[in-house]
């Protein structure tokens, strides 16, 4: 049973409470060497997010964790997330307090105080996602949608094999979709729309046999639908069309450039309810097998080179 996070309380930055009465002995104290042993020499990079997280947990964190504290790794990882994504400018800043990290904004935990979910949609986050999130092995949900996070998706995301809900939509991510996503076999929702992802839809997506909703709208993907796509037996919604956004410079249309034919294998996707591929470069005939998908309630194949009905 998750422990829900508390509501955000606006402040000018990370707040601190009264210093705990217990302070570890010198022998028990968490040290720079302890952090280096786990996170590598990146903790020595001057002015980096790693160095800032290191300085906070060693010198500013009033909780004064010991090297034997079971939560010091996840506390450091969350401090790293804060400093990697412009935490000082977050909309909701109840973070890096003396409280247990399970009480911080957007964080929910299991009863054993391991992090279960990170929910920080519309939180004015910038910067990039640290690869060390993979050190939170029991994560079931990450939602950082509608921020301004940029960079590539860390390949280490594939290590979060408990994930069932991953939402990176409406950000500034770029680069290829990592094939390691295929390791997230418990995913039911994967939302990556409205970024600048490029390249192909990985064949390893076919391993996502529990995936129900896949959102890829408004990226820069350029490939065919791999044969393995039709192995996603639980898929009920697929969105990969175009999307119109309004900016200060006017209206911009974001669209993938997926191409090729729609395979007759689409008949395998018997749970499909929504199939939206508008504004791409598909060609050929719409396979008759689509007419046998009895759960299909919405189909949009407009602005392609498809024929048939």
Provide structural commentary.
11% of the residues lie in helices and 20% in strands. It is built from three helices and 18 strands. The chain has helices at 32-39, 49-60, 72-84; strands at 107-109, 115-119, 141-143, 150-151, 165-167, 172-176, 189-191, 196-199, 213-215, 220-221, 237-239, 243-247, 250-254, 259-260, 274-276, 281-285, 298-300, 305-307. The strands form four sheets. It has a nine-stranded mixed sheet, with no helix packed on it. Strand 1 (107-109) and strand 2 form a beta hairpin. The N and C termini lie far apart (48 Å).
Number of helical segments with 4 or more residues: 3
> Which residue ranges are poorly predicted, with pLDDT under 50 across at least 5 consecutive positions?
1-22
Percent helix = 10-25%
Portion in beta strands: 15-25%
Report the radius of gyration as a whole number of Å.
22 Å
Provide the residue-averaged pLDDT: 90
Strand order in the largest sheet? 1-2-3-5-7-9-11-15-17
Assembly state:
single chain
Order of helices and strands: HHHEEEEEEEEEEEEEEEEEE
Measured between the Cα atoms of the first and last residue, the distance is 48 Å
Counting DSSP E segments of at least 2 residues, the number of strands comes to: 18
């Amino acid at each position: 049973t998750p422990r829900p996070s508390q509501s955000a309380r606006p402040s000018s930055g990370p707040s601190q409470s009264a210093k705990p009465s217990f302070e570890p002995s010198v022998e028990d104290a968490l040290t720079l060497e302890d952090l280096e042993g786990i996170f590598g020499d990146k903790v020595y990079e001057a002015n980096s997010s790693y160095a800032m997280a290191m300085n906070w947990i060693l010198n500013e964190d009033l909780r004064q964790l010991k090297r034997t504290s079971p939560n010091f790794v996840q506390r450091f990882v969350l401090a790293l997330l804060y400093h990697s994504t412009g935490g000082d400018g977050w909309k909701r800043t109840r973070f890096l307090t003396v409280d247990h990290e399970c009480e911080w904004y957007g964080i929910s935990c299991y009863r054993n105080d391991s992090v279960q979910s990170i929910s920080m949609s519309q939180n004015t986050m910038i910067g990039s996602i640290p690869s060390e999130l993979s050190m939170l092995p029991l994560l079931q949900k990450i939602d950082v949608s509608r921020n301004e996070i940029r960079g590539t998706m860390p390949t280490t995301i594939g290590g979060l094999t408990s994930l069932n809900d991953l939402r990176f939509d409406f950000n500034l991510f770029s680069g290829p979709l990592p094939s390691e996503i295929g390791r997230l076999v418990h995913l039911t929702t994967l939302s990556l729309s409205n970024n600048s992802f490029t390249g192909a839809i990985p064949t390893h997506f076919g391993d996502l046999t529990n995936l129900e909703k896949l959102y890829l709208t408004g990226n820069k993907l350029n490939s065919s639908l791999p044969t393995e796509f039709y192995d996603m037996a639980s898929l009920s919604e697929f969105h990969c069309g175009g999307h119109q956004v309004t900016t200060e410079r006017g209206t911009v249309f974001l669209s993938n450039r997926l191409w090729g034919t729609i395979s007759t294998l689409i008949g395998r996707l018997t749970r499909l309810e929504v199939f939206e591929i508008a504004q791409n470069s598909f060609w050929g005939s719409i396979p008759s097998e689509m007419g046998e998908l009895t759960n299909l309630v919405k189909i949009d194949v407009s602005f392609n080179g498809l024929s048939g009905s």
